[in-house]
Amino acid sequence: MNGIERVQATLTGQAVDRRAVAPVLSLYGARLTGCPLDRYYTDSELYARGQAAVADLFQPDLLFSSFSFASVGAAFGGNLFFSGNQAPNLRRPAILSPEEWDTLVWPRHDTNPHLLYFQETIQRLVEAHGSEVLVAAPVVPPFDVPTLVMGIEGWLRLVLTDRSRARGVLEKCVPFFVEMANSYFEAGAACVVAPCGFMSPSVVTRDIAEHFSRPALAAALPQLKGPIVLHHVGAPMLAHLDLLTGLPSTLGLAVDRQDDLDQARAIAGPDLTIFGGPSVFRMPGYTASEIEADCRALLENRRQDARFILCTAGPDVPWETPPENIQALRRTAESFSGRSVPA
Amino acid sequence: MDIQRELLDTVLRADQAGANALLDAWAAEHGYGRLLVDVVEPMLEYVGRTYMDSQSVTLAQAYVAGMIAEDALNKMVAQNRRGQAENVSPRGPVVIGNIEEDFHALGRRMVGTFLTAEGWQVHDLGNDVSAQQFVDKAQEVGARVIGVSAMMTTTARNIGHLRAEIDRRGLTGRIQLAVGGAIFVLCPELVQEVGGDGTAQNALGATRLFEQLWQRSLEREAGA
User: Fold this and answer.
1) pTM given for the model
2) What burial class does residue A77 get, using C-beta atoms within 10 Å of its C-beta: 0-12 exposed, 13-18 middle, 19+ buried?
3) Pick from B17, B61, B105: which is nearest to A205 by CB?
């Protein structure tokens, strides 16, 4: 099986030759090619070269397009900061006050260079690797777009102090998100992956997640031209995981390493694919043997679960992670294949 | 139900408007003079003690607690009650900031708010602060604690430069290094790796940590 066949079989609950493996290596491509990050995150050709190196060295079953959400903030006018070993950050958001939302000029997906970059990286990855692996595109969910426009503090304060105005902002973010995700599908992405910050139990109360954030997803997802994976954003999601179920277009849930996978499956139901794996925060410090042991424990736990993909849990795999720690994922999946009984 | 319990409930609901209404009602009866000492500080102390060892407090709840503290301070100042100087024993000074190349300001700002509400004199240097800037300011103002924040593993490792700068200037023990940010909760071993003297699970636990480190600095100096 190639990566496409392996992932598609997993999504439909069919037997696979081994577990699909999908480490998030958007940043890591730059390390492999020695590309300066200010160029990697603005030039789609250089990004594609980095991902070609990722494909060569790690042979993942999914490739990820650029995971640089700060660049979305830059599309609105935010100021980017590039460092030598991490994805860009926003030095200063585009707006600082809630009133500025009223006059904000929204960037267009078909002309803004920051937004076009995302689409171009997808196109290049699909052109180069589309016969072997699927391309997944990280996308900012509607309730997190404002964190990139006014900063998380400004958005949190607005949600907590003026829910009505916040809801008005959120309503504007729904079509922006839909256009963004659909531009990724048109560029060739097989699915989009949305890290759901304002659904996370570590960020918001259940009341906010259920009555503020979830309705925006419910409004947006039926308009997508392809499937979405809802992601835990690097923190435990189990307490709110039920709020991510029952939504259209959803093909899977990515959960945190601290989330109990049996409980996650019980909440998700039988049809959603679960994405789980070692924590990216642990990957630089663990040995390859420790990563393998962690992966083996996860695969053992999911032995009877056909719809499970071994990924890395969290944001991007950190720059300083030794390559052998990343290779440990696929190596474990291969060595485990003789004993796994999917489907 | 007493005011502190009611206030705590508004925090757990992340209900900023409800908290303001409670504080205003209490102040209408008792005045603003002792709002911090009698109401806000005990609430922060309780929440900090309850949640400092767990991850069960959400960012929104902690942020509301910070806004309550900030609002209470502002109202006291607006009412010309001489605020904390009259009611809270002055502590500090301390220096806080995000380490170089880190721009995730929210946690640091919340720590600053909680410290200020409990009477600490806080010098907040903002984002992207170099090791030299931290130590220069600490020496200038006589701080015994530097609180440094980082979000990711990569920027957390820059804190090692600050540790080295403190040691290089012969200030080991005299200046205690508090490290914070989500990455230290996820990877506690990083605290030692970057040379931190202590950490807290969240911003609410920072005031207790700073108190402990301040005492440790005094003890080290006395024992030296």
Assistant:
1) 0.87
2) middle
3) B61
